[in-house]
């Protein structure tokens, strides 16, 4: 029996979604139907909404979410109806070489994408589910392996933000960059992801944390959450200021904007032996131009999907860091809208009005 619910349907890139009734099919083996409680608007959603990354339309955007399990398919043992859950767009098969070597974000199973083709019915026809989640809807039909149970005491917003934003920033620091205690770290971009990285750098005992953004209000939050220095990229040249404030540059630079220019800047502020990690999504065709003479002395640059997160291993630890106060989550949820105001919510996120704009169900 199909499940009917309200959803924000995007039919054309660059146009606001419309609020419509859609249908989701019953969960099959290994699938779970989740009633959405909170969803954040991530920069990735804005890229797909604008058409920067092509995606089959119509679809329902949104991938950073929390909710409550409604019904489960055959063989599901990880969660039960009534459980509160984080819904993460990173699913995994648990069998391929990438999965068994701890790199589930690079899972090579092609079946997951197949399952996303007939989960949503829009106008009575199959519409492609977005990133295996489609969170801007009252219900989500997802893989059991996309879910992390949420303990009591963690808010719905915090749970949603641990599905992408904070987890992406924190996993990049803890799994990929791995700063040593006392290290100098620069973070380009102080949206939810960048602020996750800043807080994780503080938790990892970095002694210098430079936050770079062009929005004053985000730099204020960055300072509150652990940045020791802030650079207003709308006024100052971040490369000059970071180098001036650290002497020889930083050991770790994190790019959380998604632009080739900030990726190049992240590389340019590295001290000898430093590593830059690009976790923003660079548009197709973007090329990062690096100053050739600085590539010597052991500097490196790499990219990552969600900080190489191992969802079932990392996210419960990040939940504990939120519960014990090392990571602030609710502080990042600065604006709330009902699903019916999704157009305004996307505008807010696009114009970087707060830190994270949330849809509350
Ligand atoms: Zn995201
Ligand atoms: Zn796999």
Brief overview:
The protein is α/β, with parallel strands linked by helices.
CATH class of the largest domain: Alpha Beta
Q: Could you state the order of secondary-structure elements as H and E?
A: EEEHEEEHHEEEEHHEHEHEHEHEEHEHE
CATH homologous superfamily placement of the largest domain: Medium-chain alcohol dehydrogenases, catalytic domain
Rg from Cα: 20 Å
Helix content: 25-40%
Largest sheet at a glance?
7 strands, mixed
Number of strands: 18
Overall form: globular
- The domain count comes to 2
Count helical runs: 11
Q: What name does the CATH topology of the largest domain carry?
A: Quinone Oxidoreductase, Chain A, domain 1
Structural class: alpha/beta
Strand content: 25-35%
Termini separation (Å)? Answer: 23 Å
Element layout with pairings:
Blueprint: E1 3-10, E2 18-24, E3 31-40, H1 43-50, E4 59-60, E5 64-72, E6 84-87, H2 97-100, H3 111-115, E7 120-122, E8 125-127, E9 139-143, E10 147-149, H4 156-161, H5 165-177, E11 184-188, H6 192-203, E12 208-213, H7 216-224, E13 229-232, H8 238-246, E14 250-255, H9 260-268, E15 270-278, E16 300-303, H10 311-323, E17 333-337, H11 342-350, E18 356-360
Parallel strand pairs: 11-12, 11-14, 12-13, 14-15, 15-16, 17-18
Antiparallel strand pairs: 1-2, 1-4, 2-7, 3-5, 3-9, 3-18, 5-6, 6-10, 7-8
Helix pairs in contact: 5-6
This protein binds zinc ion (ZN) (2 copies).
One zinc ion (ZN) binds next to loops.
């Amino acid at each position: 029996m199909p499940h009917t619910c309200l959803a924000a349907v995007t039919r054309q890139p660059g146009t606001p979604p419309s609020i419509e009734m859609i249908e989701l099919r019953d969960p099959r083996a290994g699938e779970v139907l989740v009633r959405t409680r909170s969803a954040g608007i991530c920069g990735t959603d804005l890229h797909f909404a604008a058409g920067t990354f092509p995606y089959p339309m119509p679809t329902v955007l949104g991938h950073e979410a929390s909710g409550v399990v409604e019904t489960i398919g055959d063989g599901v043992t990880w969660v039960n109806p009534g459980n509160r859950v984080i819904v993460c767009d990173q699913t995994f098969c648990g069998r391929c070489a990438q999965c068994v070597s701890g790199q589930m974000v690079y899972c090579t199973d092609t079946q997951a994408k197949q399952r996303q083709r007939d989960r949503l019915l829009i106008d009575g026809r199959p519409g492609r589910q977005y990133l295996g989640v489609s969170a801007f809807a009252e219900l989500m039909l997802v893989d059991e392996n996309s879910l992390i149970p949420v303990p009591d005491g963690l808010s719905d917003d915090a749970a949603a933000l641990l599905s992408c934003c904070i987890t992406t920033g924190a996993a990049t620091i803890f799994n990929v960059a791995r700063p040593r205690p006392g290290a100098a770290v620069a973070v380009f971009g102080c949206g939810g992801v960048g602020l996750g990285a800043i807080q994780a750098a503080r938790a990892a005992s970095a002694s210098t944390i430079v936050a770079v953004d062009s929005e004053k209000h985000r730099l204020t939050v960055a300072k509150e959450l652990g940045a020791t220095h802030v650079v207003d990229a709308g006024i100052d040249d971040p490369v000059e200021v970071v180098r001036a404030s650290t002497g020889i540059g930083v050991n770790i630079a994190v790019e959380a904007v998604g632009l080739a220019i900030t990726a190049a800047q992240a590389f340019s502020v590295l001290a000898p032996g430093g590593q830059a990690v690009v976790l923003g999504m660079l548009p197709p065709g973007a090329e990062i131009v690096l100053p050739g003479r600085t590539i010597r002395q052991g500097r490196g640059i790499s990219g990552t999907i969600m900080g190489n997160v191992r969802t079932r291993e990392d996210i419960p630890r990040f939940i504990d860091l939120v519960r014990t106060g090392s990571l602030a989550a609710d502080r990042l949820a600065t604006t709330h809208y009902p699903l019916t105001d999704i157009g305004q919510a996307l505008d807010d996120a696009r114009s970087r009005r707060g830190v994270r704009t949330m849809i509350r169900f």
